[in-house]
Amino acid sequence: MSSPSTTDADVANSYNEWDPLKEAIVGCIEGAAVPQWEPSFEVDLTLQCRDFLQMYAGSPFPRELVEPAAKELEEFCRILTAEGITVRRPDCVDFSQPYSTPDFSASGLYAAMPRDILLAIGNEIIEAPMAWRCRFFEHRAYRSLMKDYLRRGAKWTTAPKPLMADELYDFDYLAKSPEEREKLALSRSKFAVTEYEPCFDAADVVRFGRDIFVQRSLTTNQLGILWLQRHLGDRFRVRTVSFEDSKPLHIDASLVPLRPGLALTCPIRPCHQAEGFKKAGWDLVEAAQPTLPNSWKMLFASRWLSMNILVLDPQRVVVEAQEEPLRKQLEDLGFETISIPFRHVYTFGGSFHCATCDVRREGQLEDYGFPSE
Fold this sequence. Notes:
- By secondary structure, this protein is an alpha/beta fold.
- The chain has a single domain (about 10-360), classed as 5-stranded Propeller (L-arginine/glycine Amidinotransferase, Chain A), CATH 3.75.10.10.
- It has helices spanning about 10, 40-45, 45-55, 65-80, 115, 145-150, 170-175, 180-185, 220-230, 275-280, 325-330, 345; strands at about 20-25, 30-35, 85-90, 100, 105, 110, 120, 125, 155-160, 205-210, 210-215, 235-240, 255-260, 260-265, 285, 310-315, 315-320, 335-340, 355-360.
- The protein has a three-stranded mixed beta sheet. A three-stranded mixed beta sheet has the order 7-8-9. The chain has a three-stranded mixed beta sheet with strand order 10-11-12, with helices on one face.
- It starts with 7 loop residues before the first helix and ends in a 12-residue tail after the last strand.
Protein backbone atom coordinates (compact mmCIF):
# COMPACT_ATOMS: atom_id res chain seq x y z
CA MET A 1 0.00 0.00 0.00
CA SER A 2 1.46 3.36 -1.00
CA SER A 3 2.13 5.98 1.64
CA PRO A 4 -0.11 9.05 1.69
CA SER A 5 1.15 11.99 -0.35
CA THR A 6 2.53 15.08 1.35
CA THR A 7 0.00 17.90 1.71
CA ASP A 8 0.70 21.62 1.89
CA ALA A 9 -0.08 21.49 5.62
CA ASP A 10 2.70 18.94 6.11
CA VAL A 11 5.22 21.48 4.78
CA ALA A 12 4.01 24.86 6.02
CA ASN A 13 1.00 25.51 8.25
CA SER A 14 1.05 28.43 10.68
CA TYR A 15 -1.94 30.63 11.57
CA ASN A 16 -1.17 31.89 15.07
CA GLU A 17 1.54 32.16 17.73
CA TRP A 18 0.43 29.34 20.05
CA ASP A 19 -0.73 26.15 18.30
CA PRO A 20 1.62 23.17 18.86
CA LEU A 21 4.91 23.94 17.12
CA LYS A 22 6.19 21.29 14.71
CA GLU A 23 8.85 23.03 12.60
CA ALA A 24 10.82 26.26 12.92
CA ILE A 25 13.64 28.07 11.22
CA VAL A 26 16.20 29.17 13.83
CA GLY A 27 18.63 31.96 12.99
CA CYS A 28 22.38 31.75 12.49
CA ILE A 29 24.78 34.34 13.92
CA GLU A 30 27.89 33.25 12.01
CA GLY A 31 28.81 35.71 9.26
CA ALA A 32 27.12 38.64 11.04
CA ALA A 33 28.60 42.03 10.19
CA VAL A 34 28.20 45.43 11.80
CA PRO A 35 26.18 47.71 9.51
CA GLN A 36 27.30 51.10 8.30
CA TRP A 37 25.34 54.17 9.38
CA GLU A 38 22.15 54.77 7.41
CA PRO A 39 19.28 57.29 7.60
CA SER A 40 16.74 55.46 9.77
CA PHE A 41 19.39 54.69 12.40
CA GLU A 42 19.11 58.32 13.51
CA VAL A 43 16.13 57.37 15.68
CA ASP A 44 16.18 53.58 15.70
CA LEU A 45 19.37 53.01 17.65
CA THR A 46 20.60 53.68 21.16
CA LEU A 47 23.62 55.81 22.07
CA GLN A 48 25.44 52.59 23.00
CA CYS A 49 24.77 51.22 19.51
CA ARG A 50 25.90 54.46 17.86
CA ASP A 51 29.26 54.18 19.59
CA PHE A 52 29.52 50.53 18.60
CA LEU A 53 28.76 51.31 14.94
CA GLN A 54 31.33 54.07 14.91
CA MET A 55 33.96 51.60 16.11
CA TYR A 56 33.09 48.50 14.03
CA ALA A 57 30.94 49.56 11.03
CA GLY A 58 31.69 47.45 7.96
CA SER A 59 33.52 44.74 9.93
CA PRO A 60 32.43 41.34 11.23
CA PHE A 61 30.94 41.41 14.72
CA PRO A 62 33.65 40.80 17.35
CA ARG A 63 34.23 37.11 18.12
CA GLU A 64 33.65 37.71 21.83
CA LEU A 65 30.05 38.63 20.97
CA VAL A 66 29.42 36.06 18.23
CA GLU A 67 30.77 32.92 19.89
CA PRO A 68 28.65 32.93 23.09
CA ALA A 69 25.54 33.87 21.09
CA ALA A 70 26.20 31.01 18.64
CA LYS A 71 26.48 28.56 21.56
CA GLU A 72 23.16 29.74 22.97
CA LEU A 73 21.49 29.32 19.58
CA GLU A 74 22.92 25.79 19.26
CA GLU A 75 21.60 24.85 22.71
CA PHE A 76 18.21 26.32 21.81
CA CYS A 77 18.13 24.16 18.66
CA ARG A 78 19.13 21.09 20.67
CA ILE A 79 16.28 21.61 23.13
CA LEU A 80 13.71 22.24 20.39
CA THR A 81 14.81 19.05 18.64
CA ALA A 82 14.52 17.12 21.91
CA GLU A 83 10.94 18.40 22.16
CA GLY A 84 10.17 16.79 18.81
CA ILE A 85 10.33 20.02 16.77
CA THR A 86 12.03 20.00 13.37
CA VAL A 87 14.69 22.72 13.25
CA ARG A 88 15.91 24.26 10.00
CA ARG A 89 18.83 26.70 9.76
CA PRO A 90 19.65 29.35 7.14
CA ASP A 91 22.87 29.27 5.12
CA CYS A 92 25.94 30.97 6.55
CA VAL A 93 26.58 34.16 4.55
CA ASP A 94 29.41 36.65 4.90
CA PHE A 95 27.46 39.86 5.50
CA SER A 96 30.60 42.01 5.67
CA GLN A 97 30.78 42.08 1.85
CA PRO A 98 29.89 45.61 0.67
CA TYR A 99 27.34 46.10 -2.09
CA SER A 100 25.82 48.92 -4.11
CA THR A 101 22.60 49.56 -5.99
CA PRO A 102 21.81 52.61 -8.16
CA ASP A 103 20.41 54.22 -4.99
CA PHE A 104 22.76 53.36 -2.10
CA SER A 105 25.77 51.43 -0.81
CA ALA A 106 25.76 49.29 2.35
CA SER A 107 26.97 46.15 4.10
CA GLY A 108 25.73 43.93 6.94
CA LEU A 109 23.77 42.59 8.84
CA TYR A 110 22.98 38.90 9.70
CA ALA A 111 20.63 35.91 9.41
CA ALA A 112 20.11 35.72 13.18
CA MET A 113 16.48 36.90 13.28
CA PRO A 114 14.30 35.09 10.71
CA ARG A 115 11.17 36.57 12.35
CA ASP A 116 12.14 39.96 10.91
CA ILE A 117 12.18 38.85 7.28
CA LEU A 118 9.89 35.79 7.05
CA LEU A 119 6.14 35.85 7.73
CA ALA A 120 4.42 32.45 7.77
CA ILE A 121 0.66 32.59 7.23
CA GLY A 122 -1.06 29.30 6.50
CA ASN A 123 0.93 27.41 3.87
CA GLU A 124 2.55 30.62 2.62
CA ILE A 125 5.91 32.10 3.60
CA ILE A 126 6.27 35.79 2.74
CA GLU A 127 9.63 37.52 2.44
CA ALA A 128 9.10 40.97 3.96
CA PRO A 129 10.20 44.19 2.20
CA MET A 130 12.36 45.49 5.05
CA ALA A 131 13.41 49.15 5.31
CA TRP A 132 17.02 49.01 6.55
CA ARG A 133 19.52 49.17 3.70
CA CYS A 134 21.88 46.85 5.55
CA ARG A 135 19.22 44.13 5.25
CA PHE A 136 18.71 44.42 1.49
CA PHE A 137 20.34 41.05 0.74
CA GLU A 138 19.45 39.25 3.97
CA HIS A 139 17.12 36.98 2.00
CA ARG A 140 20.14 35.24 0.44
CA ALA A 141 20.72 33.28 3.66
CA TYR A 142 17.23 31.77 3.37
CA ARG A 143 17.20 31.06 -0.36
CA SER A 144 18.08 27.34 -0.05
CA LEU A 145 15.36 26.84 2.55
CA MET A 146 12.76 28.71 0.55
CA LYS A 147 13.46 26.71 -2.60
CA ASP A 148 13.08 23.52 -0.61
CA TYR A 149 9.79 24.64 0.94
CA LEU A 150 8.52 25.59 -2.52
CA ARG A 151 9.47 22.26 -4.07
CA ARG A 152 7.74 20.38 -1.24
CA GLY A 153 4.45 22.25 -1.57
CA ALA A 154 4.60 25.53 0.36
CA LYS A 155 3.71 28.86 -1.23
CA TRP A 156 6.67 31.27 -1.43
CA THR A 157 5.99 34.96 -1.92
CA THR A 158 8.39 37.89 -2.05
CA ALA A 159 6.77 41.25 -1.37
CA PRO A 160 7.81 44.12 -3.70
CA LYS A 161 11.48 44.79 -3.00
CA PRO A 162 11.97 48.44 -1.94
CA LEU A 163 14.50 50.51 -3.87
CA MET A 164 15.49 52.12 -0.53
CA ALA A 165 16.25 55.36 -2.33
CA ASP A 166 16.44 58.54 -0.24
CA GLU A 167 12.73 59.16 -0.93
CA LEU A 168 11.85 56.28 1.42
CA TYR A 169 13.28 58.16 4.42
CA ASP A 170 11.83 61.29 6.00
CA PHE A 171 14.91 63.44 6.40
CA ASP A 172 12.85 66.33 7.80
CA TYR A 173 11.66 64.05 10.60
CA LEU A 174 15.13 62.63 11.15
CA ALA A 175 16.59 66.13 11.49
CA LYS A 176 14.22 67.15 14.28
CA SER A 177 15.17 67.07 17.94
CA PRO A 178 14.51 63.86 19.92
CA GLU A 179 11.69 65.63 21.76
CA GLU A 180 9.99 66.70 18.51
CA ARG A 181 10.39 63.22 17.01
CA GLU A 182 8.88 61.69 20.13
CA LYS A 183 5.77 63.90 19.87
CA LEU A 184 5.33 63.07 16.18
CA ALA A 185 5.77 59.32 16.76
CA LEU A 186 3.37 59.28 19.71
CA SER A 187 0.79 61.11 17.59
CA ARG A 188 1.47 58.54 14.84
CA SER A 189 1.75 61.37 12.28
CA LYS A 190 5.40 60.94 11.18
CA PHE A 191 7.97 58.17 11.25
CA ALA A 192 11.44 57.47 9.89
CA VAL A 193 10.04 55.98 6.68
CA THR A 194 7.73 57.71 4.21
CA GLU A 195 5.00 56.28 2.00
CA TYR A 196 7.25 56.32 -1.08
CA GLU A 197 6.97 52.54 -1.53
CA PRO A 198 5.70 49.60 0.55
CA CYS A 199 7.90 48.40 3.38
CA PHE A 200 7.35 46.32 6.48
CA ASP A 201 9.29 44.06 8.82
CA ALA A 202 7.59 40.72 9.45
CA ALA A 203 8.29 41.24 13.15
CA ASP A 204 5.77 44.11 13.13
CA VAL A 205 3.07 41.49 12.49
CA VAL A 206 1.39 39.23 15.05
CA ARG A 207 -1.10 36.50 14.07
CA PHE A 208 -4.36 35.76 15.86
CA GLY A 209 -5.82 33.29 13.37
CA ARG A 210 -8.02 35.15 10.91
CA ASP A 211 -7.01 38.48 12.46
CA ILE A 212 -3.54 39.78 11.62
CA PHE A 213 -2.37 42.75 13.72
CA VAL A 214 0.30 45.07 12.31
CA GLN A 215 1.89 48.18 13.81
CA ARG A 216 3.01 51.27 11.88
CA SER A 217 6.61 51.66 12.95
CA LEU A 218 10.05 52.98 12.12
CA THR A 219 10.35 50.17 9.55
CA THR A 220 6.71 49.55 8.54
CA ASN A 221 4.60 52.07 6.63
CA GLN A 222 0.91 52.26 5.72
CA LEU A 223 1.63 51.27 2.15
CA GLY A 224 3.28 48.09 3.42
CA ILE A 225 0.24 47.33 5.57
CA LEU A 226 -2.01 47.99 2.56
CA TRP A 227 0.05 45.58 0.44
CA LEU A 228 -0.38 42.89 3.09
CA GLN A 229 -4.15 43.51 3.26
CA ARG A 230 -4.55 43.30 -0.51
CA HIS A 231 -2.27 40.27 -0.80
CA LEU A 232 -3.98 38.20 1.91
CA GLY A 233 -7.48 39.11 0.72
CA ASP A 234 -10.82 38.48 2.41
CA ARG A 235 -9.69 35.30 4.15
CA PHE A 236 -7.86 37.45 6.72
CA ARG A 237 -8.56 40.73 8.47
CA VAL A 238 -5.41 42.85 8.63
CA ARG A 239 -5.80 45.36 11.48
CA THR A 240 -3.54 48.21 12.51
CA VAL A 241 -2.62 48.30 16.20
CA SER A 242 -0.56 50.93 18.03
CA PHE A 243 1.16 51.50 21.37
CA GLU A 244 2.30 54.37 23.55
CA ASP A 245 5.76 54.07 22.05
CA SER A 246 7.97 56.88 20.77
CA LYS A 247 10.23 54.44 18.87
CA PRO A 248 7.98 51.63 17.63
CA LEU A 249 10.10 48.86 16.15
CA HIS A 250 8.70 45.30 16.06
CA ILE A 251 5.59 44.22 17.89
CA ASP A 252 6.83 41.10 19.67
CA ALA A 253 8.00 42.89 22.81
CA SER A 254 4.75 44.87 23.08
CA LEU A 255 1.94 42.37 22.36
CA VAL A 256 2.54 38.63 22.84
CA PRO A 257 -0.41 36.21 22.55
CA LEU A 258 0.01 33.12 24.73
CA ARG A 259 -3.12 31.09 24.01
CA PRO A 260 -6.69 31.87 22.91
CA GLY A 261 -8.02 34.66 25.13
CA LEU A 262 -4.71 35.57 26.83
CA ALA A 263 -1.87 37.89 25.80
CA LEU A 264 1.05 39.68 27.43
CA THR A 265 1.46 43.43 27.02
CA CYS A 266 4.33 45.76 27.87
CA PRO A 267 3.56 48.01 30.88
CA ILE A 268 5.61 50.92 29.53
CA ARG A 269 3.99 50.67 26.06
CA PRO A 270 0.22 50.35 26.64
CA CYS A 271 -1.86 49.27 23.67
CA HIS A 272 -4.23 51.94 22.32
CA GLN A 273 -6.68 49.22 21.23
CA ALA A 274 -6.73 47.42 24.61
CA GLU A 275 -10.48 47.88 25.08
CA GLY A 276 -11.14 46.27 21.72
CA PHE A 277 -9.16 43.20 22.76
CA LYS A 278 -11.05 43.01 26.04
CA LYS A 279 -14.43 43.31 24.28
CA ALA A 280 -13.36 40.41 22.06
CA GLY A 281 -12.82 38.31 25.19
CA TRP A 282 -9.06 38.64 25.52
CA ASP A 283 -7.30 39.17 28.85
CA LEU A 284 -4.28 41.46 28.51
CA VAL A 285 -1.73 40.87 31.28
CA GLU A 286 1.16 43.25 31.86
CA ALA A 287 4.47 41.39 31.67
CA ALA A 288 6.72 41.19 34.72
CA GLN A 289 9.64 43.60 34.86
CA PRO A 290 12.78 42.45 33.03
CA THR A 291 15.88 41.58 35.04
CA LEU A 292 18.51 42.43 32.42
CA PRO A 293 20.99 44.88 33.95
CA ASN A 294 21.33 48.28 32.29
CA SER A 295 25.01 47.57 31.80
CA TRP A 296 24.34 44.71 29.36
CA LYS A 297 25.34 45.55 25.78
CA MET A 298 22.09 46.04 23.84
CA LEU A 299 22.55 47.09 20.23
CA PHE A 300 19.19 46.90 18.50
CA ALA A 301 16.55 46.39 21.19
CA SER A 302 15.40 47.20 24.73
CA ARG A 303 15.44 45.28 28.01
CA TRP A 304 11.85 44.23 27.21
CA LEU A 305 13.22 41.44 25.05
CA SER A 306 12.30 39.48 28.18
CA MET A 307 8.80 39.34 26.61
CA ASN A 308 10.18 37.91 23.37
CA ILE A 309 9.29 34.35 24.33
CA LEU A 310 8.40 31.38 22.13
CA VAL A 311 5.14 29.53 22.73
CA LEU A 312 5.57 25.83 21.93
CA ASP A 313 1.90 25.03 22.55
CA PRO A 314 -0.90 26.36 24.81
CA GLN A 315 0.79 24.71 27.82
CA ARG A 316 4.54 25.30 27.25
CA VAL A 317 6.60 28.44 26.81
CA VAL A 318 10.33 29.04 26.29
CA VAL A 319 11.66 31.87 28.48
CA GLU A 320 15.13 33.30 29.05
CA ALA A 321 16.80 31.53 31.99
CA GLN A 322 17.53 34.65 34.06
CA GLU A 323 14.11 36.25 33.60
CA GLU A 324 12.84 34.71 36.83
CA PRO A 325 9.91 37.14 37.46
CA LEU A 326 8.49 36.43 34.01
CA ARG A 327 9.01 32.69 34.40
CA LYS A 328 7.07 32.74 37.69
CA GLN A 329 4.34 34.89 36.15
CA LEU A 330 3.90 32.46 33.26
CA GLU A 331 3.75 29.50 35.63
CA ASP A 332 1.10 31.30 37.69
CA LEU A 333 -0.85 31.65 34.44
CA GLY A 334 -0.77 27.86 34.05
CA PHE A 335 2.21 27.36 31.73
CA GLU A 336 5.07 24.94 31.96
CA THR A 337 8.22 26.97 31.29
CA ILE A 338 11.41 25.86 29.59
CA SER A 339 14.28 28.11 30.70
CA ILE A 340 17.19 28.56 28.30
CA PRO A 341 20.12 31.03 28.58
CA PHE A 342 19.85 33.52 25.73
CA ARG A 343 21.24 36.86 26.87
CA HIS A 344 24.17 36.80 24.49
CA VAL A 345 21.63 36.57 21.67
CA TYR A 346 19.84 39.56 23.25
CA THR A 347 22.90 41.64 22.32
CA PHE A 348 22.07 41.18 18.64
CA GLY A 349 18.53 42.50 19.02
CA GLY A 350 16.26 39.53 19.61
CA SER A 351 15.26 36.61 21.75
CA PHE A 352 13.39 33.34 21.13
CA HIS A 353 10.54 34.77 19.08
CA CYS A 354 12.83 36.95 16.94
CA ALA A 355 15.29 34.10 16.39
CA THR A 356 12.62 31.78 14.94
CA CYS A 357 10.12 31.57 12.14
CA ASP A 358 7.42 29.05 13.06
CA VAL A 359 6.83 27.52 9.66
CA ARG A 360 4.59 24.66 10.82
CA ARG A 361 2.19 24.34 13.72
CA GLU A 362 -0.74 22.00 14.28
CA GLY A 363 -4.19 23.50 13.90
CA GLN A 364 -6.16 25.35 11.27
CA LEU A 365 -7.44 28.82 10.54
CA GLU A 366 -9.86 29.95 13.23
CA ASP A 367 -11.64 33.07 14.41
CA TYR A 368 -10.74 34.19 17.93
CA GLY A 369 -13.55 36.58 18.75
CA PHE A 370 -12.62 39.85 17.04
CA PRO A 371 -15.64 41.45 15.33
CA SER A 372 -15.65 42.33 11.66
CA GLU A 373 -14.78 45.97 11.10
